[in-house]
Input
Amino acid sequence: MFDFTFYNPTRIHFGKDRMSALAKEIPADARVMILYGGGSVVRTGVLDQVKTILQGRHLSEFGGIEPNPTYETLSKAVEKVKADGTDYLLAVGGGSVIDGTKYIAAAALMEDDGWCILENRGRNIQRALPIGVVLTLAATGSEMNNGGVVTRAATHDKIGFSSLHCFPRFAVLDPTKTMTLPPRQIGNGVVDAFVHVMEQYLTYPVDAKVQDRFAEGLLLTLIEDGPRALATPDNYDVRANLMWTASLALNGLIGAGVPQDWATHMIGHEITALYGLDHAQTLAIVLPALLDIRREQKAAKLLQYAERVWGIHDGSEQEKITAAIAKTRAFFESLQVKTRLRDYGIDESAVPAILAQLERHGMTKLGEKREITLDISEQIVRGCC
Output
């Protein structure tokens, strides 16, 4: 195993009726900006509930943060934070709202334009405003980590950043807040969490038995409860397990001390930036193709994955690997998330543009061993078609 440090300061308030924790977590004299997305928190009454609990504090709002938060929109929020003298940010929504709030928290305290955060991948962040979270969509795990992804719409740049200063101080995780989600968001959320686990698990063996078993347990939970969430959307226990799984998938725990891949995400980001596909849709497209192209390099973990997660014990090693990849693709499809570029009206003519984006962003050595060159990425992207 590798040497590692595991650190996560986010306090979690999990379960029904935990919204009251907001009153204790956010100081009474705080000047709070509530940030949210397209308006579902307004329609469902979550925003009103938050404002009622925080009554007496100086409150302001900023809505309209996109599913892939843009620099252009977030810059407007930064200006409002500065103008209002805001000193506490509360993200009410899913991963995109939380990612955007992390960016705002750091950019609001910078003299330079906030895009420098993305240019430096967050390494230049020296401080940030405190952040709280009310989670309404289980998917990204952003409520319990220090990273985010922001898109510059004008230039089609989708770039990630991270900083120890961007951990949320706390997060309220009430599974009932996810019960009004449409099927598309439920399926996307399960896929997102699943691929987060796979990026940290399906690399090569390092005798990290505990991390492997943690990861396999999360995958099995998603396989079991993902379809149930679509079939029985009011099932609290299912929603609770999915919410906690998504948080654990990317809070640093299962990735501590093990090699990590993230090539699926890097390629997926470029597809989203160019063609506007949902983040989870790109992950469902890229992962099966990547596993197929990299089956030799990932053979040991693919066989472990086939046997432990999918219960595949018969056949040759290559047959087991092929079956595991097929089951992965079928699982995504069962969640109503399509797994081919052609399903979204994109053909092989898109390949050069995607590769050009990867090259422009320096993504020329990807994967757990940095062996995925542009030539290999081309094979993967063509396999996505």
